[in-house]
């Protein structure tokens, strides 16, 4: 087959990821990431993420596509975070920055929103031990 007749689109390009689908991915992945105590997702977790992203977005996404997109988002977030810190800004204009920053940068006690029961118990234990000293 001549090279010119082949598709030049990479197998897992970001072309079919629109803003809504990316936010769905961040929401689904972020929930699982926080449930796991900010630890890496296992293969079965990624399968579940891909299934939920596919259902919510009405676009078929597999585990590899979701992992690849999240890796791209993490790389972009690290660059944006460094730029924000270097320039001394409070935030980035990048559309996904606030969501990524909430998931990647915050410690559990700074988080706004969902906290696991274990995180709440840990916080209460810290508060109790600090107030008794």
From TrEMBL:
<dbReference type="InterPro" id="IPR044822">
    <property type="entry name" value="Myb_DNA-bind_4"/>
</dbReference>
<dbReference type="Pfam" id="PF13837">
    <property type="entry name" value="Myb_DNA-bind_4"/>
</dbReference>
<protein>
    <submittedName>
        <fullName>Trihelix transcription factor asil2</fullName>
    </submittedName>
</protein>
<feature type="domain" description="Myb/SANT-like DNA-binding">
    <location>
        <begin position="16"/>
        <end position="103"/>
    </location>
</feature>
<dbReference type="GO" id="GO:0000976">
    <property type="term" value="F:transcription cis-regulatory region binding"/>
</dbReference>
<dbReference type="InterPro" id="IPR044823">
    <property type="entry name" value="ASIL1/2-like"/>
</dbReference>
<dbReference type="GO" id="GO:0005634">
    <property type="term" value="C:nucleus"/>
</dbReference>
């Amino acid at each position: 087959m001549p090279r010119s007749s082949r598709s030049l689109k990479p197998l897992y390009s970001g072309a079919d990821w629109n803003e809504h689908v990316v936010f769905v991915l961040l929401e689904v992945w972020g929930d699982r990431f926080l449930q796991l105590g900010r630890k890496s997702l296992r293969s079965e977790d990624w399968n579940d993420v891909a299934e939920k992203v596919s259902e919510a977005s009405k676009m078929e996404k597999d585990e590899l596509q979701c992992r690849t997109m999240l890796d791209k988002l993490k790389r972009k977030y690290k660059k944006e975070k460094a730029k924000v810190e270097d320039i001394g800004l409070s935030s980035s204009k990048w559309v996904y920055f606030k969501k990524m920053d909430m998931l990647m940068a915050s410690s559990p006690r700074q988080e706004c929103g969902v906290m696991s029961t274990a995180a709440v118990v840990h916080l209460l234990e810290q508060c109790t031990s600090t107030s008794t000293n």
